[in-house]
Amino acid sequence: MKRDYLLLMYGEEVISQMAKLKLVFDPNRILNIGNIFEEKYLQ
Amino acid sequence: MPKVKNAAGYYCRANMDLIDLFIGSEGTLGIITELKLKLLAWEEKILSCVVFFQSEDDAFNFIDEARSITKSDSSSEEIKISARGLEFFNKLKWMLDLVERKSLEYVVYGHFGNCHTHLNMLPRDQADFIQAKKIYSEICCEAVRLKGTVSAEHTASEK
Prior knowledge:
The complex is a heterodimer.
Chain A: H1 3-25
Chain B: H1 18-22, H2 56-69, H3 81-101, E1 105-111, E2 116-122, H4 126-145
Antiparallel strand pairs in B: 1-2
């Protein structure tokens, strides 16, 4: 999966920030879970 | 964010337009239910052609020259394309060497103007496939090391 490469490129910190941003738009976690980052970042 | 053409992860820049966050977000931020499109006037002076060069140097020099006389290219790039192009070409050779060493079949093409390759490895069997994935990973690591991107086009969601 290419999301592993995004993690390699940006690192955990930035990926976590991206996940936080997603939660602002999608607090119910219903939109394309698993794309861009793993679900574990959405806890 | 890398300063090169990039389609990896959410876009982020100071004073950015919200639409740029949505583009490439792979449907993770919202669902578009209505769109208004603004059309651009048709550009009348477009020249499209395929040119074959004798050597890579010739190709890079052409890009360099074409850039310098293209008025619409307002980017103030300090690094000359020829220097960057040479580095790019060395990397391209390095990439192809990885693939050829494992006797994988492949096709390669790309956009020299923005140092962007399309390397398509063509596995014949499962062993080739595993090998190709390893090479892909190695190339991505090198791209990241050079402050580039793992995905310059399309999105990263293709599984």
